[in-house]
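Deadline looming. Please check this record:
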Amino acid sequence: MGRPRTPLLDRARITATALELIDAQGEFSVPQIARRLGVQTGSVYHHVDGRDGIVELIRERVAQGIDSSALDLRPWDTALKAWARSYRAAFAAHPRAVPLLMTNPVRAPRVLAQYEAAVVLLLASGFALADVMPVIVALENIALGSALDLAAPEAMWELADETATPRLAEALAASAGNRADRAFEFALEGFLAHARRRLEA
């Protein structure tokens, strides 16, 4: 038999399969990937640097959805706002990947390049070196938390008896519709306002 025209296994197929598993069940294993692709587990390891290598391939795949050109915008707060919205949208497409990616060190060169661009932006805008990473991590926390929130039900509070929590019932009624989007914008504006004050100080 000759070789198949389309290879059974490559990094792109491994990444796509792992991401499908994560989207479905929140986790993946190399044997699961192999079974889905119809190959031996050992064959997968010929294409990737173990499980951690697959995690980084997933990170790169998800991060492709982030508009890194947003970091070229000026002024800095316009750039961070656009980057945060794009960041949130990219991870909202794969919310179950968030816990996995956030508990593994970032090694993917293309992802690190985005962080480099963010650091350069903040330093050029006058932020103290010691403040740069707290600003970036805080912005990530807002974007990733909201990405998870987008995957949650619109009605997160179920009141069996509204008379027991009447003010909560009123607040929920007053904020109905686009809960996650409104909360994200509220947090983002508050974060940027604090960052502006920090910069001015």
User: Anything to note?
Assistant: The first helix runs from residue 11 to 25. Residues 25 and 96 are 8 Å apart (CA to CA). The two ends are 72 Å apart (CA to CA).
